[in-house]
């Protein structure tokens, strides 16, 4: 009998309009694969939130929590989900931080972020974007990490990986050493990373 430490994973998915098409399909396929795997693993829980904007406000959907939901909810509800709006990034992290599960002596906690762009959220009388929004997002990420939660952030692209692009630089500013660039055709790298984490004894 193998024994593994308890763990919790919070997956936050960028559901802005730019995630549409193949990026959304591949990201959702891998997210569901993680949820199915977690459903079969004792001592492991997962939450999934989607972030976007709606009616000129940052909007968060708490879509799944394995502590209270059955996997049948994923099969019934997830096919109806789709991307919309812009990318509020750090504003949403600040709002959902109270939902994160902090570490303790018996539990490891992870935050997995999936995104495809820079923060961008204009509104009446304000603008959330550029370097200011990137630094704010980084501040929120550091607060999450200060809770002892290990952060993994994947920038998902369908135009090829360019580590010197403005998007890549912005992503590194926001997520630091947690930032990784992956092509949509290789988005299953996320699942492989999760397997490696959860199989640590």
Question: How would you describe this protein?
Answer:
The protein is an alpha/beta fold and 201 residues long. Helices cover 34% and strands 29% of the residues. The strands form 2 sheets. Strands 3-2-1-4-7-8 form a 6-stranded mixed β-sheet, with helices on both faces. Helix 3 (90-96) packs parallel to helix 4 and helix 4 (130-146) runs parallel beside helix 5 (166-175). The model has no long low-confidence stretch (mean pLDDT 88).
Instruction: Characterize the biggest β-sheet.
Output: 6 strands, mixed
| First and last CA, distance | 12 Å
Major sheet strand order: 3-2-1-4-7-8
How much helix, percentage-wise, in residues? Answer: 25-40%
Topology at a glance:
Blueprint: E1 6-14, H1 22-39, E2 44-54, E3 57-65, H2 72-77, H3 90-96, E4 107-115, E5 120-123, E6 126-129, H4 130-146, E7 150-157, H5 166-175, E8 179-183, H6 189-198
Parallel strand pairs: 1-2, 1-4, 4-7, 7-8
Antiparallel strand pairs: 2-3, 5-6
Which features would summarize this protein structure in a list?
201 residues, alpha/beta
Write a brief structural summary.
With 201 residues, the protein is an alpha/beta fold. 34% of the residues lie in helices and 29% in strands. A six-stranded mixed β-sheet has the order 3-2-1-4-7-8, sandwiched between helices.
């Amino acid at each position: 009998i193998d024994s593994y430490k308890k763990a919790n994973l919070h997956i936050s998915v960028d559901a802005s309009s730019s995630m549409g098409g193949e990026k959304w399909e591949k990201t959702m396929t891998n997210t569901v694969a993680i949820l199915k795997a977690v459903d079969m693993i004792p001592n492991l829980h997962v939450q999934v939130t989607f972030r976007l904007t709606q009616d000129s406000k940052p909007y968060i959907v708490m879509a799944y929590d394995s502590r209270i939901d059955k996997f049948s909810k994923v099969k019934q509800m997830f096919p109806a989900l789709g991307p919309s709006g812009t990318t509020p990034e750090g504003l949403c992290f600040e709002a959902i931080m109270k939902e994160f599960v902090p570490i303790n002596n018996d539990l490891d906690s992870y935050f997995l972020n999936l995104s495809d762009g820079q923060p961008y959220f204009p509104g009446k009388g304000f603008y959330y974007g550029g370097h200011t929004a990137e630094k704010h997002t980084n501040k929120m990420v550091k607060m999450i990490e200060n809770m002892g939660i290990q952060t993994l952030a994947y920038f998902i692209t369908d135009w090829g990986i360019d580590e010197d692009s403005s998007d890549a630089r912005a992503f590194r500013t926001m997520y630091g050493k947690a930032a990784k660039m992956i092509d949509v055709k290789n988005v299953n790298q996320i699942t492989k990373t999760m397997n490696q984490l959860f199989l640590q004894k």
